[in-house]
Predict the structure.
Amino acid sequence: MGYEIERKFLIKGDFKSQAYKSFRIKQGYLSLSGVSVIRVRVKGEKGYITVKSALAEGMLTRHEWEYEIPVVDAEEMLNLCEEGIIDKTRYLIKAGDHIFEVDEFYGENEGLLIAEVELKEENENFERPEWLGAEVTGNVRYYNSFLSIHPFKSWSKL
Amino acid sequence: MGYEIERKFLIKGDFKSQAYKSFRIKQGYLSLSGVSVIRVRVKGEKGYITVKSALAEGMLTRHEWEYEIPVVDAEEMLNLCEEGIIDKTRYLIKAGDHIFEVDEFYGENEGLLIAEVELKEENENFERPEWLGAEVTGNVRYYNSFLSIHPFKSWSKL
């Protein structure tokens, strides 16, 4: 089992020029129960299935188990997923000792940009790049699982 | 992706003396949505996560993807599972060209015995051992996923 401690931010400036790597991600959810989230992901040429324990709003730590699976399996399982498939490009950007992952969303989530940084401890310090906007950690609206059901373009109706 | 074609039967006689192997299975369900079933299983010393597409009553074929995972992960994930954990011993019995799996359930499903045989084609013939009882293929009551929510001991109340 792994733990995941991450903080999420909006974006307020150009970040793409600082990315050292980028790849396309398509993912969906086989389950979004109150207790766990089961995600299927195609990331570049690889496939993954991930089980995450549910995360209460405001908490930073959740349990996570991720396994690499054949990419063809992941593509087939995306057809079983409930609600919308998330389609995005992920940009990796170094800042001090950390790597920020910035997701640029497409389709029904077009217009949304989210940066995430993974920490080893909840109180860990990290360098904040100048393009980093307001923190949205723990705000369920910015969870990919929420976005798959209530995409960004539908938010004005929420 | 694999396909699973199996037929299920009740038991009407002694089968244990014919078993060439047996092992304990504990399993639970991370998700039981209308579209897919996600099962976590500890089988002897090994762990598995399995995704199955939903099966309409009366159908014999479903999609299935199974991955071996660390047994400690599977044990931890059983704590996330919804509803009841299924606990049973599985006996393997050869009959002609096929292997019957007979499950003897414990706990809330004590008293229930189910035999399954996996086939390559829906019309495939197979030898029927003398202890094989009535066929219950496609009857959702005998799905382990159903038993985890409505265990055998509660059936008189259904």
User: Anything to note?
Assistant: The two ends of chain A are 35 Å apart (CA to CA). The beta strands of chain A are 2-11, 21-32, 36-43, 46-53, 61-69, 82-95, 98-105, 113-119, 132-135.
